[in-house]
Structure formats: structure tokens, C-alpha cells
Amino acid sequence: MFNPLLERLEKGPILCDGGMGTLLYNRGIYYDVCYEELNVKQPTIIQEIHRDYIAAGSEIIETNTFGANRYRLAHFGLQDKVREFNLKGAKLAREVRDISGESVLVAGSVGPLGQLVGAGGSVKTSEAQAAFKEQIEALMEGGVDLIILETFYNFQEMWQALRTARATTDIPIVAQMTFTDDGRTFSGHTPEEVMQMLRQGGADVIGLNCHVGPQGTLAVLERFASASPTFPYLSAQPNAGAPQRIEGRLFYNATPEYFGQYVRQFHEMGVKIMGGCCGTTPLHIAKMREALKSIRPEEGKTFTPGKGYSPIYSPPHSDVGPDASVHEQVDRLLEKVTSVLPTELAQKLAAGKFVVSIEMGPPKGINPTKMLQATAKMAELGADVVNITDSAMAKVRMGSMACAILIQQSIGIETIIHYTTRDRNLMALQSDLLGAHANGIRNVLALTGDPPSLGDYPGASGIWDVDAIGLTAMLKRFNRGQDWNGRSIGSPANFNVGCAFNPTATDLPTEIERLRKKLAAGAQFIMTQPVFDPKLLRETLQEVGEVKIPILAGISLLNNYKQTEYLYHEVPGIVVPLPILERMRAAGEKGMKEGLKIATELVEEIDGLVQGVYLMPAHNKYEASGELLKLIKGR
User: Rounded to whole angstroms, how far apart are CA atoms 44 and 50?
Assistant: First the structure.
């Protein structure tokens, strides 16, 4: 299955972040505090550190969860907070990543238990496995992209952690042991033995971190590479040398410049993930980033608004020559802008084609890079269109209309914008939509929108001069050349108007009645809420009666059992059949593959009921959507 980490490692080395504890210590938070509790008590400081590392060039950030297992937390009387601290740690990192807009991966950090495991130890093997499983499941629930097992001094404990991780998840696992200055682990194992055993255990990336600096790290890497020259993915996160304690504070001597000098040597040794551990800061990462640019100068480019596209929408292959007069160019552009031709989506649906859309979540900040990269990947795999949410669940994100303009003008794939009446009065709705039409945004899913009380600003006022039914009617009036009051807008628009329908709504009669009103108002296609039960969809559509417009069914990609359990028990209006819940439970570490299999079966079973699907990735993870897209297009 496509995986963003492994795909990126194939292109060259990527940069992880540096020390978390070091930066907390530098901010005056000493080691007698439970650092993992800060995820809940001082989340802002954790987010600031994540933000600083991304700004320095980190492409992987680690959650603040290194010691968030039941045994380490017991030292602070917090052993019952494992799920809370790990879940919050993952969410904090994801939030910062989403706001940055960069294609940053979130690694769930898992460290040793802090007690001896196995024979002669205070923790039995089965107890250790249970503790690791508890932590990893919470990180998975929080939406991490990979698991990083780090700073393991004892190989037997690493073996238990790796076996548990591999049995719990099918996302990539980075396994990093810690070595002494003489090139052995603290349990006496050589790099050659570690490499052999970690490969057998199923680690995707093998490496070392902590204790030794860049020079000692390089010596171990040489032995890794010699022991297994065909293993493709090594990692290295050295300390900034050995620490000195001066007046009660720890200081590390290895400078950022010194770290930068080792980047090329790490690269030549085959290291694909490099970063720092204790004593390293965003300054160290920034210097490593500079060194990486000379190795892979094509990497690290970001999207720059204002370059490479016209402020007025025109197709990528314009037939207006560069020598045409200004008047000729304006006339041709206006001809395209005022075109009454159906959208590509409308044409495909009219031709009976089975259409696939991918749902895109806009960034939470000002940088659209990650969204654009994901869109480009989905377009490359054959998506017909992408649909863009409009601050779903009343959580503020970049506007769907602005995102659609960026996507159509920089990627070239058509969009469907979700557009709600929650945030705009009757005047704003009309002015926005007229502007959207001029920019080539013609496919609109008319929505009422979630109430502000659910989101980031619960005290904000919803407007709702009209609801989704009224918005549908407004768009159809535009298509007749009139505004809401019947005044002329110059010429008819050509919006392709969609409406939403939940076939598993709690109050199904009311939902069906609203659908009929949307159809009467002029809806041209339907997009459903997530569907998990083909039989239930079929029965609901029979109750609705004849529907003469195309239906696109929502397909929510399941990643793991925890996510499925949450949908089953806690999300109103979504019905997950018990057999699917049990399948995801039984799938264990192969949850993503089983979720893909379930989605594939759903698409096959509803093919005759609908004319397309839109794929809804969890946590904006597009790998499973890409795999399903390829399967659908390959039918």
C-alpha cells in the first residue's frame, strides 16, 4: 500500500526534528516535572516547539509522548492518563502540522518503560506488551503517520516493543537503539546483531539515537551498513555531544555547524531519516537543512501564491497567443469566464461515467502546500474531481473557495466546493458565488453548515438567512440569470448544484423530506454522508422514491479499530454495521488494509445504486484513498 513516509524515503533523505526535552528544559521546565502532562496543562509550549522545528525545516515532528506509558507516568501518579496524554500529544502535533500547511509527517514517540523487562525484571513480558499496546493504540487514535521506538537501551525490551507495535499497526515503524561509546548497546549487543534482529522483527527503518554524538553515531552506522548492505532505510538522531552540568543546568557542546558537517557523511552511509536528540535545537536542524539542500536541491520547495497562475481563471492551454492585444486577451478570457458550457463533472455524470472525487481538508493556516501536493497526487492517480470542505464541524480553516481557485489554477483538476450558509448573510452569499463563477468555480455543494457551538468559536453567531434549500434555489436563480430578488446578473450562470443527504439519519423521515425540497429547488447531483451498509442505502433510496439526478456516495476510509469504534459508538447519524466493527477489531495491525478492503467491497456493492463516490480520508491521510482510487479506476 502507498505510504507517504516510504514514498518520500525513496526520493532521498528527510529531516526529523531535534530534542523536545532540551527545549522544555531551556524554557525553565526542569526534569522533575512530567513532560507528557504538559500536553494537557501547557499545550501552547508544546505547539511552539513543534512550530519552531517545522520552521527550521523538519519534515517529521515527534509527539511529546516519549515517556507516556503507564510505568513512567506512575512515578507522577498519572498511570491512568496514558490514553489522554498520547491522544493529546498526537493531536497537538497534527494541529501544528495542519496550520503550517507543509507536508510534515507526525511520528508517535514511544520510549522504554523505565523498568527492567523480562527475566529478573520487575515487569513481565506480557505486562510490557500490554503497556506498549496501550500507548501505541492511543497514538494511532490520535492520527500519527508512523511510530518511532527510540532510546531503547535494552534489546529485549526493544524486541517486545517492536513485536507489539508490529502486531498493533500497519503504519511504518522506526526502531532506534541507543549505543555506548564502544559501539554496543547497554545490553551488550553489537550493531550487526541489532540490525539482524530488528529486520526480523519487521522494522521499516532501523537506526540509533541518543547518548553518542555525530561521530559515534557514524561509527555505528558504518557497521549497520556493512552488516546489511541491502537494507534501504537507516536513521540517525545523535545527541549534541556529551552534556556538561554547570550551575545545575545541562549544556551540550556540539554546535549546529558541526551537525551540518555530518549530513553528507550520514547520507553517504545510506541514512534516510536524520535529525537530533538530546541537546539539539531548531538551530541544529536548520543547519542540517542547509546541508541537505546541496544534496537534494529540488526538495524543500514550497508553493508561493502569486506565481504561475492568472488572477482570472483560464484553462492551462489557452489559445490566446502572447502577441494578442490586451483587448483580444480580455475578450477571450471573458468568453471563457461567461461560458455556459456544463462543468466537466456535469458532462461526465451526464455521459453515465462513474465518477470519483477525493475530499480535501483545507489548511488551518496560510500555507496551502500540503493540500496542493496531495491534490496533485490524487490527480495523477486519476481522480475526476476533488471536493473541498468549508470549515467542517465549525472549525476554522482556509476558505473552500480560495482553495478551489488555487487548486484549479495550479493543479488543473476541477473542484466541488462545499459552501455553507452558516457564516454569510444573503448579500455575502451572492457576492461570493458571483466571484466564484468568474474564477471558474462552478460545482457547488449547498450546505447549511454545522452550528458554531460545535467548533472553535462557540460564542460566534450563525447567520442562516437561508438554509441549504434556499442556497440551492439561489444558485438555480443565478443559472436563470437572476439574483435572489429577481434582478438581472447580465447573463445566465452555469453552476452545477449539489445537495447533501444522510441515508442513515436518526430522523430519516425529516431527512427525506428535506431532500425532496432540495430536489424541487433545483439540485443537480447528490452527495451522501458516509455509507457503510449497502443494504441500508438501498432501502433508504427505495423509500425516497425515484431520484433522477446522479448520486455520489461518501466512502469513509477506516484506518484502525479505534477510529471505527469511535464512529460506531459516538458519532450520531453514521451507522457502522457490527460486522464491520468486528472485522476491524480482528484486523489488528492490518487495520488500514482491512479498511481498504471494506471500502473496495462497498464501492462494488453500491455501483448500481450510485453514479460515483467521494473518498473521505481520516486525519487528511490520503494513502488509502490513493490505493482505492487506483482500484476503482482499474476496474
Answer: 10
